[in-house]
Design a protein that fits this description.
Elements (H helix, E strand, L loop, with lengths): L30 H11 L8 H15 L3 E7 L10 H22 L2 E7 L12 E4 L2 E4 L13 H4 L4 H22 L22 H22 L4 H4 L4 E5 L3 H6 L1 E2 L8 E2 L4 E4 L9 H7 L5 E5 L5 H11 L8 E5 L6 H15 L4 E4 L6 E4 L3 E4 L1 H18 L3 E7 L34 H16 L1
Parallel strand pairs: 1-2, 1-14, 2-5, 5-8, 8-9, 9-10, 10-11, 11-14
Antiparallel strand pairs: 3-4, 6-7, 12-13
Helix pairs in contact: 1-5, 3-5, 3-6, 3-13, 11-12, 12-13
The structure holds phosphoenolpyruvate and manganese (II) ion.
Cofactor: Mn(2+); Co(2+); Cd(2+)
EC number: 2.5.1.54
Keywords: Cadmium, Cobalt, Manganese, Transferase
């Protein structure tokens, strides 16, 4: 099973990952039923195109070079039940509002990447879950099994792959329709209003920024005597953790007149912290596709590991190909990150640096409820900006778990949610997300930080 560290890239194929150890995979009871579903999937139309993928890679190259900022956000785990117009629209709205704040405050183009239209597979710290003396297989995301704590719900069901693919297509179709129909046009940010935030403490600052952008657009259009659609048009890209490798493989295709292979079920697959082993199947799979690829970098991953990932995933040092998403935790980022920043900087490799201030700051409170404190999330992001500045590197993006709903999953923020608030609207099936207000507040903090 132990593969060489620098295998001949000509030996990569969409199935070469099967020669490596694949951790965090579902154990299907019926291999034939799984294969039949994968065969169906491999003949379905793709969800995204190679042109879009290459456009995102180009935008990542710009962000790596300091010219853009990437906002990546969405649910920890999408659920089939949440594939509804309201939830999709609200998530799109909060991402649009955050990006507007970032564009205005950072004076940079913002690249928007949703954690949606395919974020259905979850890595778990344990294969089993015990409640009240009963032990069952863990929930691994709606693409594999169901969260209900019953034996039947937890059996991996290959039909769920088809449902996940269909819901991803529906989500993406709706997002594309909204955007093409003018919903995301910067001339009409009033379409993005989320009712419940009207009286939020941050509403005034947000409105000021919206008005300022509207004024600038109108001013430029007066000068140009035409509508500046290039400036006011908004793109959206998709991303998900490339965890379920048979599913990813089924969407890995060649396209006419383009070299190489593309993963056509998302623009940007990423490798999670638990599957970032240099000799593991996930790194093997991701090294062969043209898509820009993210990798989570966590505490304990040393310089040799990170440089090894870059060598393996991007041996030709193609700009925009790899985003390193560090997720250290507010307590340890100051000791863990600088050696990595310095080593990558000195290696001369092109990297898009992003900060995920969520996953190093998860904690459990009474009753085992998982939460995150807004102050820790904010502190990690603040420190990340400072540490990059000190190393002479550019922090080119933020990776966040958020929702457009009024949930109470993370504590703190402008309304200072407390432990007792958590019970009120705790809906996530996996990790706690920033609610709409907390997400917008974080975007403003990023901007304030850069202005200070
Ligand atoms: C996630 O992004 O939901 C996740 C599990 O992150 P990580 O791999 O960084 O722990
Ligand atoms: Mn998560």
């Amino acid at each position: 099973m132990n593969a060489p560290l620098t295998p001949d890239s000509s030996q990569w194929s969409p199935t070469s990952w099967t020669d490596y150890q694949a951790v965090q995979q579902a154990q299907y009871p019926d291999a034939e039923a799984l294969q039949a579903v994968l065969d169906q999937l491999s003949h379905m139309p793709p969800l995204v195109t190679s042109w879009e993928i290459m456009a995102l890679r180009k935008q990542f190259a710009d962000a790596a070079a300091g010219r853009k900022f990437v906002l990546q956000g969405g649910d920890c785990a999408e659920s089939f039940a949440d594939c509804t117009p309201d939830i999709i629209t609200n998530r799109l709205k909060v991402l649009l509002q955050m990006s507007l704040v970032l564009v205005h405050g950072l004076k940079k183009r913002v690249v928007r990447v949703g954690r949606f239209a395919g974020q259905y597979a979850k890595p778990r710290s344990s294969d089993l879950e015990t409640r009240d003396g009963v032990t069952l297989p863990s929930y691994r995301g709606d693409i594999i099994n169901a969260p209900d704590f019953t034996e039947a719900a937890r059996v991996p069901d290959p039909q769920r792959l088809l449902t996940a693919h269909a819901r991803s297509a529906m989500t993406l179709n709706f997002v594309r329709g909204l955007i093409d129909g003018g919903f995301a046009d910067l001339h009409h940010p009033e379409y993005w209003d989320l009712q419940w935030v009207e009286h939020a403490p941050l509403a005034k600052e947000y409105q000021r920024r919206v008005d300022a952008i509207g004024d600038s657009l109108r001013f430029m259009e007066t000068l140009a005597e035409q509508s500046i659609s290039e400036l006011s048009r908004v793109d959206f890209f998709t991303s998900h953790e490339a965890l379920h490798l048979p599913y990813e493989q089924a969407s890995t295709r060649r396209v006419p007149r383009q070299p190489g292979w593309y993963n056509l079920c998302t623009h940007m697959p990423w490798i999670g912290k638990r599957t970032a082993d240099l000799n593991g199947a996930h790194v093997e799979y991701c090294r062969g596709i043209q898509n820009p690829v993210g990798v989570k970098i966590g505490p304990g991953m040393d310089v040799a590991w990170v440089l090894g990932l870059l060598e393996r995933l991007n041996p030709d040092n193609i700009p925009g190909k790899v985003a390193l998403i560090h997720r250290m935790g507010a307590e340890v980022i100051a000791s863990e990150l600088p050696p990595i920043l310095e080593a990558v900087r000195d290696s001369g490799r092109s990297v898009l640096w992003m900060c995920d201030p969520m996953h190093g700051n998860t904690e459990s409170v009474a009753g085992g409820v998982k939460t995150r404190r807004f102050d820790n999330i904010r502190s990690e992001l603040d420190q990340a900006f400072d540490l990059h500045a000190a190393a002479g590197t550019y922090l080119g993006g933020a990776h966040l778990e958020l929702t457009g709903e009024n949930v109470t999953e993370c504590m703190g923020g402008a309304r200072d949610l407390t432990e007792t608030d958590l019970a009120r609207a705790y809906h996530t099936t996996v990790d706690p997300r920033l609610n709409y207000e907390q997400a917008l507040e974080l975007a403003m903090l990023i901007v304030h930080k850069q202005a200070s």
